[in-house]
Design brief:
Blueprint: H1 3-12, H2 23-30, H3 42-68, H4 73-101, E1 107-117, E2 121-123, E3 126-128, E4 131-143, H5 148-158, H6 171-178, H7 193-196, H8 199-213
Antiparallel strand pairs: 1-4, 2-3
Helix pairs in contact: 2-3, 3-4, 4-5, 4-6, 4-8, 6-8
Length: 234
């Protein structure tokens, strides 16, 4: 625990206001799974655990707002959207770790160094231009960028959450919700946040996130019960 977190915990002892679980509590739970191995080094692990812990504390806070604060229907939908998006990013990050730490990530020996664009020219009565991308061959392979779709499909195919995990079939729905982060990208008149985010989506993402955090991957953790706040009625 750093000095800022310790100071905050000391301050909390002076009043009785509600406070979410401390960041370090989430870290204790996450370190059961997320640790250094031959595929992923410490400089990646530390910020990953920290950012996951921050996001989990934030989600508990948003969940508290959802249950304890009377909001307009629009604010409630927007709050649910925030919960869903942040939960999906946590799921994506855990999936990323599982794929990389099991040596299943996409790799490449080529790194983009620059791109060169030609001037405009006319071809078959159309205005055209070319772009040349220059790659440098590396001495060793590096992890290539992977989309949430690619990562989650690897998790599903390889059963990286364990054979007892029974929510693999719900992951594709999480991917679709994750893509709703772009408010300008609408397919039709009713493709709005108000119509896309409801208690149904909240239950879905909480159900999957809770199942991941109490899965066999974390069976040695003493903190699995701390995620009961993710259990809500449909």
């Amino acid at each position: 625990m750093n000095k800022t977190e310790q100071k905050e915990e000391n301050r909390l002892g002076l009043n009785s206001k509600w406070y979410p679980q401390a960041v370090h509590t989430h870290e204790y739970h996450l370190q059961i799974l997320i640790k250094t191995n031959i595929y992923i080094q410490h400089e990646k692990i530390y910020p990953l655990r920290k950012n996951l812990a921050y996001s989990l504390q934030y989600i508990e806070f948003l969940s508290k707002l959802n249950t304890d604060i009377y909001m307009s229907s629009v604010l409630k939908k927007q709050n649910i959207k925030s919960i869903v998006i942040h939960s999906a990013t946590i799921i994506e990050a855990i999936f990323y770790y599982l794929v990389v730490s099991n040596g299943l990530s996409n790799t490449t020996k080529w790194a983009k160094t620059k791109s060169i664009s030609t001037g405009e020219y006319s071809l078959l009565n159309n205005t055209m231009k070319n772009e040349i991308i220059i790659y440098e061959k590396l001495k060793e392979k590096i992890i290539a960028p992977m989309t949430f779709d690619q990562i989650s499909k690897k998790v599903e195919k390889k059963k990286l959450l364990g054979k007892s995990f029974d929510h693999y079939h719900k992951i594709s729905a999480i991917r679709r919700l994750r893509n709703k982060i772009h408010i300008h990208d609408s397919d039709h008149n009713f493709d709005t946040d108000f119509n896309n985010f409801s208690n149904k989506e909240l239950v879905l993402v909480f159900d999957v996130l809770h199942s991941i955090l109490i899965s066999e991957l974390f069976k040695e953790s003493d903190y699995r019960k701390n995620y009961a706040f993710l259990l809500i009625d449909s």
